[in-house]
Amino acid sequence: MTQWLDEAQQQHWRAWLAANTLLLDAFSRDLQEAHGLTMADYEILVRLSESADWRMRMSDLAEATLSSRSRLSHQIDRMERAGFVERVACTDDKRGYFAVLTDAGWDILVAAAPCHVMSVRERIVDVLTPEEFAALGNASKRLLDHMGADPA
Amino acid sequence: MTQWLDEAQQQHWRAWLAANTLLLDAFSRDLQEAHGLTMADYEILVRLSESADWRMRMSDLAEATLSSRSRLSHQIDRMERAGFVERVACTDDKRGYFAVLTDAGWDILVAAAPCHVMSVRERIVDVLTPEEFAALGNASKRLLDHMGADPA
DNA sequence: CTCGGAAAGTTGGAGTTTCAACTAACTGCG
DNA sequence: CGCAGTTAGTTGAAACTCCAACTTTCCGAG
């Protein structure tokens, strides 16, 4: 016998789902309109910029951005065409490649970051009380843990 | 001067983002493996099944599922091909169409629902304390309100 | 050394989403 | 009435994602 959700649970669940969709849409739209970037582009730029030598192995980057290898590979194709990253062969492991941030990639990240942070603030951080926001973050962290995901 | 996020805020934000991605992936995968449905399919089936006469105007359905008209149109194409819905011309407004749930659509929804609810429980509802889950839902609701979204 | 399996990454095609352009029908104002 | 502007919905192409198959290289046991 299925244990259905009660009315309140149903509402929480749907709110969570709807908020995700609308927020993610909004962030993408903001980034897109202002700088022609997608969320995926942006996350890759961020990860690379935070890495030593502005570079990361394809697999590590895929894992960090919660993306499949295949998806990342196509994604890096596009970003390479756009001039934001370069592929550099890894000499230690000849199967491997690094995705390396270019100056152009850095520049667009620097240009886009303030506007992205702004929209995260406007739509989430500053909308909630600090307690509510922390609760949202902590609940998310618990859910991640339960799935065995690294919180990094 | 950009007001960056502090360390804790950064972590909450990233946790939220990661949890969304992983959870949504997981729900899709569960539905896909068990019944060959996508989340989008499932939500449409749910909405239609909850509507009078198992039918909804295309625009209303698009709005309810937070999808663009174009996306919904393609989506309904596929579901019509699969036999889960039908398009029925609207006689009042000759521009309009109803998406109507078929018996086959109802059947697959009935088959898929328990397994979907199960996975929502397993991955969210039963993972958190009732307080944490409520906090997640309420925060989401607040964010929706702030975006002017109807909580229905 | 060498061979089988695992890991890194890419590829192509099919499926999905987005965007802009389009048709057809409705609405209301002069 | 009659036509300008809106609304409903579709379409096709381009962008993106997913999946399965593939190549190359690495690793470890014998």
What can be said about this structure in brief?
The structure is a homodimer of 152-residue chains. The first copy, chain A, has 152 residues and is mostly helical.
Give the tags.
homodimer, 152 residues, 3-stranded antiparallel β-sheet, 3 strands, 9% strand, globular, DNA-binding
Overall description:
Two copies of one chain form a homodimer. The first copy, chain A, is mainly alpha-helical. Chain A has one domain (31-146): Winged helix-like DNA-binding domain superfamily/Winged helix DNA-binding domain (Arc Repressor Mutant, subunit A), CATH 1.10.10. Chain A contains six helices and three strands; from the N terminus they run H-H-E-H-H-E-E-H-H. A three-stranded antiparallel beta sheet of chain A has the order 1-3-2. In chain A, a hairpin with a 7-residue loop joins strand 2 and strand 3 (97-101). In chain A, helix 3 (58-64) packs across helix 4 (69-82). Chain A is globular. Chains A and B meet through helix 1, helix 5 and helix 6 of A and helix 1, helix 5 and helix 6 of B. Chain A binds a DNA duplex (30 and 30 nucleotides) through helix 3 and helix 4.
